[in-house]
Amino acid sequence: MRLSELGELGLLRELERRGLVDRIADDAAVVGGLVVTQDALVEDVHFRLDWTSWRDLGYKAAAVNLSDLAASGAEPLGLVVSLGLRAETKAGDVIELYEGLNEPGVPVVGGDTTTAGSPLLSVTALGRSDRVPGRGGARPGDVLVVTGPLGASAAGFLSLENGLGSPLESAHRRPPLRLVEGRELARHAHAMLDLSDGLAADVGHLAERSGVRCVVDLDAVPVAPGVEEVANRLGRDAVEMACGFGEDYELLAALPEPAAHAVVGRCEVGSGVDLLRGGAPFALSGWEHFRAGRV
Protein backbone atom coordinates (compact mmCIF):
# COMPACT_ATOMS: atom_id res chain seq x y z
CA MET A 1 0.00 0.00 0.00
CA ARG A 2 1.27 3.46 -0.90
CA LEU A 3 1.36 6.37 1.53
CA SER A 4 -1.12 8.21 -0.68
CA GLU A 5 -3.62 5.46 0.16
CA LEU A 6 -2.62 4.99 3.79
CA GLY A 7 -2.32 8.66 4.75
CA GLU A 8 -0.33 10.14 7.61
CA LEU A 9 -2.72 8.94 10.31
CA GLY A 10 -2.97 5.48 8.83
CA LEU A 11 0.81 5.24 8.78
CA LEU A 12 1.04 6.21 12.44
CA ARG A 13 -1.62 3.65 13.37
CA GLU A 14 0.27 0.93 11.51
CA LEU A 15 3.57 1.83 13.19
CA GLU A 16 1.83 1.80 16.55
CA ARG A 17 0.17 -1.55 15.81
CA ARG A 18 3.58 -3.06 15.06
CA GLY A 19 5.05 -1.71 18.29
CA LEU A 20 7.49 0.54 16.40
CA VAL A 21 6.30 3.77 18.02
CA ASP A 22 4.79 4.48 21.41
CA ARG A 23 2.27 7.13 22.47
CA ILE A 24 2.91 9.54 19.61
CA ALA A 25 -0.65 10.76 19.10
CA ASP A 26 -0.43 13.82 21.38
CA ASP A 27 1.05 17.19 20.40
CA ALA A 28 4.12 16.50 22.50
CA ALA A 29 5.84 13.71 24.44
CA VAL A 30 6.73 13.78 28.11
CA VAL A 31 10.24 12.38 28.57
CA GLY A 32 12.06 12.49 31.90
CA GLY A 33 9.97 15.41 33.10
CA LEU A 34 10.48 17.38 29.88
CA VAL A 35 7.74 18.14 27.35
CA VAL A 36 9.28 17.53 23.92
CA THR A 37 7.88 18.25 20.46
CA GLN A 38 9.31 18.42 16.95
CA ASP A 39 8.12 19.77 13.61
CA ALA A 40 9.84 19.98 10.24
CA LEU A 41 9.22 22.63 7.59
CA VAL A 42 9.99 21.64 4.01
CA GLU A 43 10.26 24.02 1.07
CA ASP A 44 7.25 23.90 -1.28
CA VAL A 45 5.29 21.91 1.30
CA HIS A 46 5.21 24.27 4.29
CA PHE A 47 6.72 27.42 2.82
CA ARG A 48 7.86 29.15 -0.35
CA LEU A 49 10.82 31.50 -0.21
CA ASP A 50 9.30 33.72 -2.90
CA TRP A 51 6.44 34.36 -0.43
CA THR A 52 8.31 34.26 2.86
CA SER A 53 11.32 36.15 4.19
CA TRP A 54 14.03 34.20 5.99
CA ARG A 55 13.13 35.98 9.22
CA ASP A 56 9.45 35.08 8.87
CA LEU A 57 10.42 31.48 8.13
CA GLY A 58 12.45 31.32 11.34
CA TYR A 59 9.62 32.83 13.35
CA LYS A 60 7.07 30.39 11.92
CA ALA A 61 9.33 27.39 12.57
CA ALA A 62 9.61 28.42 16.21
CA ALA A 63 5.92 29.29 16.51
CA VAL A 64 4.52 26.00 15.20
CA ASN A 65 6.62 24.10 17.74
CA LEU A 66 5.75 26.46 20.56
CA SER A 67 2.11 25.88 19.62
CA ASP A 68 2.55 22.21 20.51
CA LEU A 69 3.99 23.25 23.86
CA ALA A 70 1.01 25.56 24.32
CA ALA A 71 -1.33 22.61 23.70
CA SER A 72 0.57 20.80 26.44
CA GLY A 73 0.26 23.67 28.92
CA ALA A 74 4.04 23.97 28.93
CA GLU A 75 6.50 26.74 29.71
CA PRO A 76 9.15 26.76 26.94
CA LEU A 77 12.80 26.15 27.88
CA GLY A 78 14.62 26.05 24.56
CA LEU A 79 14.73 25.13 20.88
CA VAL A 80 17.02 22.66 19.11
CA VAL A 81 17.35 23.48 15.40
CA SER A 82 18.45 21.27 12.51
CA LEU A 83 18.95 23.11 9.24
CA GLY A 84 19.61 21.81 5.72
CA LEU A 85 20.59 24.37 3.07
CA ARG A 86 22.18 24.68 -0.34
CA ALA A 87 25.87 25.61 -0.16
CA GLU A 88 25.24 28.79 -2.16
CA THR A 89 22.80 30.15 0.46
CA LYS A 90 23.88 33.58 1.69
CA ALA A 91 25.16 33.75 5.26
CA GLY A 92 23.05 36.87 5.80
CA ASP A 93 19.91 34.87 5.01
CA VAL A 94 20.83 32.30 7.65
CA ILE A 95 21.39 35.05 10.21
CA GLU A 96 17.94 36.44 9.40
CA LEU A 97 16.48 32.96 9.84
CA TYR A 98 17.98 32.65 13.32
CA GLU A 99 16.80 36.16 14.22
CA GLY A 100 13.29 34.94 13.43
CA LEU A 101 13.80 31.77 15.44
CA ASN A 102 14.81 33.88 18.45
CA GLU A 103 11.99 36.40 18.07
CA PRO A 104 9.47 34.58 20.35
CA GLY A 105 12.02 34.89 23.18
CA VAL A 106 12.85 31.18 23.55
CA PRO A 107 16.61 30.50 23.19
CA VAL A 108 18.11 28.22 20.54
CA VAL A 109 20.22 25.82 22.63
CA GLY A 110 21.53 23.34 20.06
CA GLY A 111 21.06 21.64 16.74
CA ASP A 112 22.81 20.70 13.51
CA THR A 113 23.48 22.08 10.02
CA THR A 114 23.96 20.13 6.81
CA THR A 115 24.05 20.54 3.04
CA ALA A 116 20.72 19.85 1.35
CA GLY A 117 19.27 20.10 -2.14
CA SER A 118 16.47 22.34 -0.89
CA PRO A 119 15.88 24.16 2.42
CA LEU A 120 14.72 21.98 5.31
CA LEU A 121 14.18 23.30 8.82
CA SER A 122 13.48 20.97 11.74
CA VAL A 123 12.91 22.35 15.22
CA THR A 124 12.58 20.53 18.52
CA ALA A 125 11.01 22.50 21.37
CA LEU A 126 11.59 21.65 25.03
CA GLY A 127 9.41 22.73 27.93
CA ARG A 128 7.95 21.86 31.31
CA SER A 129 4.34 21.50 32.36
CA ASP A 130 2.62 20.77 35.64
CA ARG A 131 -0.20 19.06 33.72
CA VAL A 132 -0.37 17.87 30.10
CA PRO A 133 -4.02 17.29 29.10
CA GLY A 134 -3.20 15.31 25.92
CA ARG A 135 -5.84 14.41 23.36
CA GLY A 136 -7.36 11.39 25.07
CA GLY A 137 -9.21 12.68 28.14
CA ALA A 138 -12.34 14.39 26.79
CA ARG A 139 -15.57 13.23 28.44
CA PRO A 140 -19.25 13.29 27.50
CA GLY A 141 -20.69 16.59 28.69
CA ASP A 142 -17.52 18.57 27.99
CA VAL A 143 -17.76 21.74 25.93
CA LEU A 144 -15.35 22.42 23.07
CA VAL A 145 -13.71 25.85 22.92
CA VAL A 146 -11.23 27.56 20.61
CA THR A 147 -8.87 30.32 21.74
CA GLY A 148 -9.32 32.63 18.76
CA PRO A 149 -10.78 33.24 15.31
CA LEU A 150 -9.96 30.86 12.48
CA GLY A 151 -9.30 31.21 8.78
CA ALA A 152 -6.71 34.00 8.68
CA SER A 153 -3.94 31.64 7.61
CA ALA A 154 -6.13 30.11 4.90
CA ALA A 155 -7.05 33.53 3.55
CA GLY A 156 -3.42 34.61 3.68
CA PHE A 157 -2.23 31.53 1.81
CA LEU A 158 -4.90 31.86 -0.89
CA SER A 159 -4.16 35.56 -1.21
CA LEU A 160 -0.48 34.80 -1.80
CA GLU A 161 -1.35 32.02 -4.22
CA ASN A 162 -3.67 34.27 -6.24
CA GLY A 163 -1.82 37.58 -5.90
CA LEU A 164 -4.63 39.35 -4.03
CA GLY A 165 -2.45 41.38 -1.69
CA SER A 166 -4.64 40.79 1.40
CA PRO A 167 -3.34 42.02 4.79
CA LEU A 168 -4.00 38.48 6.04
CA GLU A 169 -0.91 37.23 4.21
CA SER A 170 1.04 38.09 7.37
CA ALA A 171 -1.19 35.71 9.37
CA HIS A 172 -0.04 32.82 7.19
CA ARG A 173 3.60 33.74 7.67
CA ARG A 174 3.36 34.53 11.38
CA PRO A 175 0.94 32.36 13.40
CA PRO A 176 -0.12 33.43 16.90
CA LEU A 177 1.50 32.24 20.11
CA ARG A 178 -1.02 30.90 22.65
CA LEU A 179 1.37 29.87 25.43
CA VAL A 180 -0.39 31.86 28.17
CA GLU A 181 -3.80 30.56 27.12
CA GLY A 182 -2.43 27.02 26.96
CA ARG A 183 -1.15 27.14 30.53
CA GLU A 184 -4.45 28.55 31.75
CA LEU A 185 -6.56 25.96 29.93
CA ALA A 186 -4.30 23.06 30.94
CA ARG A 187 -5.31 23.52 34.58
CA HIS A 188 -8.85 22.29 33.83
CA ALA A 189 -8.99 20.91 30.27
CA HIS A 190 -9.72 17.21 29.91
CA ALA A 191 -8.12 17.27 26.42
CA MET A 192 -6.39 19.86 24.26
CA LEU A 193 -4.57 20.20 20.94
CA ASP A 194 -3.53 22.92 18.54
CA LEU A 195 -5.37 23.55 15.28
CA SER A 196 -2.70 22.79 12.70
CA ASP A 197 -4.67 20.53 10.33
CA GLY A 198 -7.98 22.41 10.45
CA LEU A 199 -10.82 22.24 12.96
CA ALA A 200 -12.68 19.65 10.89
CA ALA A 201 -9.71 17.27 11.04
CA ASP A 202 -8.31 18.11 14.47
CA VAL A 203 -11.60 17.63 16.31
CA GLY A 204 -11.61 14.13 14.83
CA HIS A 205 -8.22 13.44 16.42
CA LEU A 206 -9.62 14.45 19.81
CA ALA A 207 -12.77 12.36 19.35
CA GLU A 208 -10.84 9.26 18.30
CA ARG A 209 -8.28 9.40 21.10
CA SER A 210 -10.87 10.25 23.76
CA GLY A 211 -13.49 7.72 22.65
CA VAL A 212 -16.26 10.33 22.49
CA ARG A 213 -18.48 11.84 19.83
CA CYS A 214 -17.77 15.49 19.09
CA VAL A 215 -20.57 17.72 17.81
CA VAL A 216 -19.36 20.99 16.28
CA ASP A 217 -21.62 23.89 15.33
CA LEU A 218 -19.79 25.48 12.40
CA ASP A 219 -22.02 28.55 12.70
CA ALA A 220 -20.52 29.18 16.15
CA VAL A 221 -16.91 29.09 14.93
CA PRO A 222 -15.35 32.58 15.08
CA VAL A 223 -14.06 33.56 11.64
CA ALA A 224 -11.17 36.01 11.50
CA PRO A 225 -11.89 39.49 10.11
CA GLY A 226 -11.06 39.76 6.42
CA VAL A 227 -11.55 36.07 5.64
CA GLU A 228 -14.98 36.58 4.11
CA GLU A 229 -13.62 39.29 1.81
CA VAL A 230 -10.91 36.97 0.46
CA ALA A 231 -13.41 34.12 0.14
CA ASN A 232 -15.81 36.31 -1.84
CA ARG A 233 -13.07 37.44 -4.20
CA LEU A 234 -12.20 33.81 -4.92
CA GLY A 235 -15.76 32.50 -5.04
CA ARG A 236 -15.15 30.31 -2.00
CA ASP A 237 -16.93 29.72 1.29
CA ALA A 238 -15.47 31.55 4.31
CA VAL A 239 -16.55 28.95 6.89
CA GLU A 240 -15.08 26.11 4.85
CA MET A 241 -11.82 28.03 4.60
CA ALA A 242 -11.82 28.74 8.34
CA CYS A 243 -12.55 25.17 9.41
CA GLY A 244 -10.91 23.05 6.72
CA PHE A 245 -7.55 24.63 5.92
CA GLY A 246 -5.58 24.61 9.16
CA GLU A 247 -2.39 26.39 10.21
CA ASP A 248 -4.28 28.74 12.50
CA TYR A 249 -2.44 27.40 15.56
CA GLU A 250 -5.23 28.35 17.92
CA LEU A 251 -6.04 25.81 20.65
CA LEU A 252 -9.02 23.47 20.81
CA ALA A 253 -9.88 22.31 24.32
CA ALA A 254 -12.49 20.03 25.90
CA LEU A 255 -13.55 21.51 29.23
CA PRO A 256 -16.06 20.53 31.93
CA GLU A 257 -17.58 24.03 31.68
CA PRO A 258 -17.23 27.05 29.37
CA ALA A 259 -14.18 29.29 29.72
CA ALA A 260 -13.45 32.77 28.40
CA HIS A 261 -13.18 31.44 24.85
CA ALA A 262 -15.59 30.72 22.00
CA VAL A 263 -17.70 27.58 22.56
CA VAL A 264 -17.94 25.72 19.24
CA GLY A 265 -19.35 22.35 20.25
CA ARG A 266 -19.71 19.59 22.79
CA CYS A 267 -18.69 16.02 23.55
CA GLU A 268 -21.25 13.24 23.74
CA VAL A 269 -21.37 9.49 24.28
CA GLY A 270 -20.42 7.69 21.08
CA SER A 271 -17.70 8.07 18.49
CA GLY A 272 -16.78 10.18 15.49
CA VAL A 273 -17.63 13.77 14.63
CA ASP A 274 -20.84 15.58 13.68
CA LEU A 275 -20.25 18.85 11.86
CA LEU A 276 -23.44 20.94 11.74
CA ARG A 277 -24.25 23.99 9.69
CA GLY A 278 -27.65 25.57 9.92
CA GLY A 279 -28.50 22.64 12.19
CA ALA A 280 -27.91 20.10 9.41
CA PRO A 281 -24.98 17.70 8.86
CA PHE A 282 -22.18 19.24 6.83
CA ALA A 283 -19.27 17.40 5.16
CA LEU A 284 -15.84 18.98 5.50
CA SER A 285 -12.31 17.60 5.69
CA GLY A 286 -8.94 19.08 6.66
CA TRP A 287 -5.29 18.51 5.89
CA GLU A 288 -3.50 15.18 6.01
CA HIS A 289 0.02 14.58 4.69
CA PHE A 290 0.40 12.03 1.86
CA ARG A 291 -3.27 12.43 0.89
CA ALA A 292 -4.98 15.16 -1.12
CA GLY A 293 -4.21 18.78 -0.25
CA ARG A 294 -6.23 21.36 1.59
CA VAL A 295 -9.78 22.44 0.82
Keywords:
12 strands, single chain, alpha+beta, seven-stranded mixed β-sheet, 295 residues, five-stranded mixed β-sheet
Produce the secondary structure layout:
Elements: H1 3-17, E1 29-31, E2 34-42, H2 54-71, E3 75-85, H3 91-102, E4 108-115, E5 120-128, E6 143-146, H4 152-162, H5 169-173, H6 179-186, E7 191-194, H7 199-210, E8 213-217, H8 227-234, H9 238-244, E9 251-255, E10 262-268, E11 272-277, E12 280-281
Helix pairs in contact: 2-3, 2-6, 8-9
Report on this model:
The protein is α+β, with helices and mostly antiparallel strands and 295 residues long. It is 33% helix and 25% strand. It has a 7-stranded mixed sheet with strand order 7-9-6-10-8-11-12. Strands 1-2-5-3-4 form a 5-stranded mixed sheet, covered by helices on one side. A hairpin with a 2-residue loop joins strand 11 and strand 12. The radius of gyration is 19 Å and the shape is globular.
Mean of residue pLDDT?
A: 91
- Outline: globular
Number of strands: 12
Q: Going across the biggest sheet, name each strand in turn.
A: 7-9-6-10-8-11-12
Would you identify the regions where 5 or more consecutive residues have pLDDT less than 50? Answer: none
**Helical/strand content category:** alpha+beta
**Amount of helix:** 25-40%
Give helix and strand order, one letter per element, not per position.
HEEHEHEEEHHHEHEHHEEEE
- How many helices? 9
Q: Could you describe the largest sheet, including whether it forms a barrel?
A: 7 strands, mixed
Rg (CA only): 19 Å
The portion of residues forming beta strands comes to 15-25%
* Measured distance between first and last alpha carbons: 24 Å
